[in-house]
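Handoff note, outgoing to incoming analyst
You'll be picking up this chain. Sequence as last confirmed:
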Amino acid sequence: MNHLLRGHAPISDIGWELLDQEARERLSAALGARKLVDFSGPHGWDYSATNLGRTASLGSAPSDGVTGRQRRVLPLVELRADFELSRRELEDADRGAEDADLAPLDKAAHQIALAENVAVFHGWTDAITGIAEASPHETTPLGDTSEEYPRRVAEAVERLLCEGITGPYGLALGREQYRRVVETAEHGGYPLLDHLHKILEGPIVWTPGVKGAVVLSQRGGDFLFESGQDLSIGYVSHDADVVRLYLEESFSFRVATPEAAVVLEP
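Most recent structure output, in case you need it:
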């Protein structure tokens, strides 16, 4: 990871351990998309493209009597979120302070996790086709109240079964929809979360950035996330007061089976 230039930062080994641990804790909760799609990697910063196994015809060849085809690949994209930390806070952390102010790192971690979730589920113009964009199924409302969620999710599962898409199934929920689910107990006190688990037989994931909800198969091979460099902290510069850092990753995402997901509008 030489390109991250961490050795040039005025941060001790203890400080880097603290920052890496803080980033892991913040990112693990918010990276919802990764919990629902196939993850491959990390393959390294120099990994630049995903093999699609396809070719495109070329209109010309270097000489007569031969034809040419060009291999098709999916270039990886890079995401980066910059932030600054107080050098005094980092020095206090070296002294053993348990309450170092790492709020800028926390904000950057949330921003980049949100961007990844949005790219996977709703796409990134000219770079990634998201699951919701690719799904050929008619989009249906999730419902005005959380009591309607089980019926809508069951209808989505049935639609997938009719397409021959087997389970188990996962459910990506936007922030507001997830909050409603965990707060709601149905008539008789039966938790809504448990009811949805029984319908899906798979994970229910808090996925900030998702609009509404997406039901998708967990059988494997339908949604493919390929990581080049996984999320890492790099160094930019510093002065007497602050250290300028960034969170960065590279990845590609492709939908192999568009029929394997149903979108439920908020």
